[in-house]
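Notebook, p. 212. Picked up where the previous page left off. The plan for this session was modest: take the two constructs that came back from the sequencing core last week, fold each one, and keep the raw output in the notebook itself so nobody has to go hunting through shared drives later. Recording the first one now, exactly as returned: residue sequence, then the structure token string.
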Amino acid sequence: MRLAVVGSRKFTDYDTAKVILDELQKDIGFTRIVSGGADGADSLAEKYAWANDLELSIFVPDWSIGKQAGFIRNVEIWDNADFGVAFWDGRSKGTAHSFKLAKKQNKRLFVFNNLLNDFYEL
């Protein structure tokens, strides 16, 4: 299984991310993490992959094409994942876009809202 990890660039709590990723690993299992290569949640996911000897796919946006690059990158992430987790601040438009993509592709998405300290499945 391939796990998409998306979220806020401001989310930097590795300990919380690790607890959530460990739980998803135990409950569902995954062998690859799919990330967008950004700071915050993406970089925490990459650190987790390296620490746990998991495969890693990073889709970096091509900003030379303009603002839509981030949204195009999100599509690439979800096209290459089986389910996902979002570390969301309740405001990020890019992360909210991932919610729509997961739903459109009928993929399970778990959300950790770090402002509310709440974890749930959409």
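Okay, moving on. Second construct, recorded in the same format:
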Amino acid sequence: MKAAKYIRINHTDDRESKKTIKHTSEGIQYIEVIDKCRSNTSFKDRSNAKSIYSMAENNTIDTLLVNSIKCLGKNSLDITSTISELTEMGVNIKSEKEKLHTLNKDGSKNKIILIIMNLIASLSEQELEQKLEKQMRGIRIAKEKGAYKSNGGNKPKLTYEQFIAKEKNSKCLKELKKGESIRRSAKLSGVSLGTSVKIKKLAEINGDIS
């Protein structure tokens, strides 16, 4: 087993982000990765979390140990995305609190766990879509009443055209137009799931997607 243990600590903690070689009581060596960050930071944006992907790509690790899957992202969508991506890279995620593992001893995927993760992700996507749809509906009503300020008194807000013109956003829209799912479009274009949902909703409002 080539393992790493990932630990997220709060940004107010006295400790610092670091990577250390450690050994279990059975003498098994593993890399302890401590990440100091805010809880609302997505997994891929954390300094030491990036090294987890790097180690997975380089075959340095095949197992990731965590106290709870909650440390693997800022919300349900981010957590399930992290688990799915690392599992696809051949990394077995083992969680102590939830008593789960994503790969079986023969290297095959733990289908029951992945079905649960996909279900959670789908429900989270639906909740995010409904939230954004409610916001958009509120904006439309406010515009009709003449009570909506596009920038709220803050920095200028991008127009739909400017927002979609961004390279990754534009690519995401193209994938959505091809019929790809929100999650697949986000992965192919390199945007977050939240951004992919926003692009879909804005595109529907502006007639780019029927």
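Notes on construct two before I forget. The mean pLDDT is 85.
Flagging for discussion at group meeting.
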